[in-house]
Design goal:
The chain is an alpha+beta fold. It has 13 helices and 10 strands. 37% of the residues are buried.
Length: 415
């Protein structure tokens, strides 16, 4: 598409030391602006990807990818249901669970709590709770011993340690000869877990599913079955397939339904940040317009001579398109190199800056995620680099078009 002399002249104009140093300065500023914008875009999106991944792991470390329940009825033959669910190729594991709302009491401290009855042997198949235990062991939850594992924040609020007893009060009352009395049971704290999410650490307690079923009067049944999938992003498809397989009696839901608003908000924030930071690249790219307009004015005599030697307007236009694109490509490549370097070393550079200036960006006493996680996505890098190049190309069209319209006679009149 390009003739050799057009490429040669365009690169020559880019390399040459111009008489007007102000033009060179603006070109340099445009190049650095593009590099800065691309670096900022790659770094910020990588950090936001890291935060999203960290939050997803913390949330789904305790929640399940999908659940199977009956319509407001206890699930009795849950062992057969587990076998049927695990036969699906996308299901990695399944485990029963019992859920209910209770109050836990220790001394004068009272807190509403969500209890989750689990099978300590099967639970590691569907969650990471075993990895989050900070005191005691999950295996200490045994049928009939009425042990309980509390979230670290909840245990701190109640002021209890491992080995102490707390009282669990259910919302259902018992009718006795002396009147209606609340149903309560003493449990022994056998462990504590810390996920790093206030939602779980402050308001969740774990116990053996058989003990929780007795407490909530479910008999031999459970609330449902929790599933872990090979690909969490395929949860909707797998839930539909399981619902068809199991029949209308069962209700299959996935994690996107419960946490949809949260992750939708994160995605919206990423999109807004992408648009805002893209404006930095756009401003720097369109500085090329002023640069090339001044170059065209400065090089009118050269353009006129090229035209008199037989150069077509299209060839003149290509010369200045090449010059503008070279500025944009160099700026983009510098920005990609800087952005990738920062994104890969954020977790090392931020602690170094914090130590150097004796400060902390994310206070652990306020934020559960006290570090800046980073996850660079290759598709994001390619998309940003492509967007930067397109903006640069658009910025060069008008000045190049003006150069192609230069009339040789008018340009050489006073030469």
């Amino acid at each position: 598409m390009f003739k050799p002399y057009e490429l040669f002249v365009g690169l020559r104009y880019t390399r040459a030391k111009r008489r007007n140093h102000f033009i060179s300065f603006i070109s340099l500023i445009s190049m650095l602006g593009i590099a800065l914008g691309v670096t900022a875009l790659i770094t910020v999106l990588s950090v936001m990807n890291g935060f999203e991944q960290e939050l997803r792991e913390r949330i789904l470390g305790m929640a399940s990818h999908a659940t199977i329940t009956l319509n407001r009825e206890p699930l009795v033959e849950w062992d057969k249901l587990i076998d049927g669910a695990e036969a699906h190729p996308d299901v990695l594991g399944a485990a029963p669970y019992v859920e209910g709302q209770v109050m836990v009491v220790k001394g004068g401290q009272v807190s509403g709590t969500l209890i989750r009855g689990i099978d300590p042997a099967l639970e590691p198949r569907v969650s990471q709770v075993t990895e989050k235990i900070v005191a005691g062991e999950l295996a200490d939850l045994r049928d009939g011993e009425f042990g309980i594992v509390l979230g670290a924040e909840l245990a701190d609020f109640l002021g209890v340690m491992v080995g102490e007893k707390i009282t669990v009060i259910t919302p259902e009352a018992s009718v006795t000869p002396v009147g209606v009395l609340p149903r309560l049971k003493r449990f022994t704290v056998v462990g504590m877990f810390e996920v790093g999410m206030y939602e779980y650490d402050r308001s969740l307690a774990l116990m053996h599913y058989a003990d929780s079923a007795k407490l909530l009067r479910l008999g031999d049944g459970v609330t449902g079955v929790r599933l872990k999938l090979e690909d969490m992003f395929a949860s909707r498809r797998v839930a539909r397939e399981l619902a068809i397989q199991l029949g209308e009696s069962y209700w299959v839901s996935d994690w996107t339904a419960r946490h949809a608003n949260f992750f939708r908000a994160v995605k919206t924030e990423k999109t807004v940040m992408f648009v805002i930071l893209t404006l930095i690249v756009a401003v720097a790219a369109f500085n090329i317009v002023s640069t090339l307009v001044m170059v065209v004015t400065d090089k009118q005599a050269d353009i006129a001579i090229l035209r008199t030697l037989g150069a077509a307007p299209r060839s003149v236009m290509l010369i200045f398109l090449i010059q503008g694109c070279v500025i944009g490509v160099i700026g983009t490549l510098l920005g990609v190199a800087g952005g990738v370097s920062l994104a890969l070393n954020v977790e090392t550079l931020v602690p170094l800056i914090e130590r150097s200036f004796d400060t902390q960006f994310l206070d652990p006493s306020v934020y559960y995620i006290s570090t800046l996680p980073s996850q660079m996505n290759g598709d994001d890098v390619l998309r940003i680099a492509g967007l930067s190049f397109v903006l640069t190309l658009l910025a060069t069209i008008y000045p190049a078009w003006r150069a192609a319209r230069v009339q040789p006679a008018e340009a050489l009149r006073y030469e």
